[in-house]
Design a protein that fits this description.
- The protein has a single domain, classed as TspO/MBR protein (Ferritin, Up-down Bundle).
- About 75% of the residues lie in helices and about 0% in strands.
- The protein contains six helices and no strands.
- With about 150 residues, the protein is mainly α.
- About 20% of the residues are buried.
- Helix 4 packs antiparallel against helix 5 and helix 5 packs antiparallel against helix 6.
- The longest helix is centred in the middle third of the chain and has 25 residues.
- Keywords: Membrane, Transmembrane, Transmembrane helix.
- This is Tryptophan-rich sensory protein.
- It holds the Pfam family TspO_MBR.
- It is a multi-pass membrane protein.
Amino acid sequence: MKFIPLLILFLIINFGSLAIGNWFMGDGATSNWYTNLNKAPWTPPGWVFGAAWTLIMICFSIYLSYLFKDYQSPIIIGVFILQVILNVSWNYLFFNQHLVLPALIVITLLTLVIFYFFFTFRMDAINSWRYLLLPYMIWLCIATSLNLYVLLKN
């Protein structure tokens, strides 16, 4: 498959996943539960989350387009599907159900999946494109620390 159709496909899937995750959040970041949490001092302002996820999903979609253009395997497809499921389910567990420990487990697994993409799929044709995963990796480390802080301090 060619790059542009793949890019469009992954942009739709990734931003669609964000939309579904946002829908599963319910009141999310504006809920009484969340606003009254003892949050980490390094919690960014609300607008940063939208900006970060927009950048992350654009970079991730470009990376996936290059990966899938040259390499299609059941493993790569399965890891991608797992990433989508984990990404969407974290919102539901944390914001909607207030299940902080299961959410921490999910976001930790999601972090491991993205690191798996970075360290496993380093073929010559994709090697330099894997650095597009860095914003996702950094953000997940921050988000995991925020989730852990909420678990320990509330």
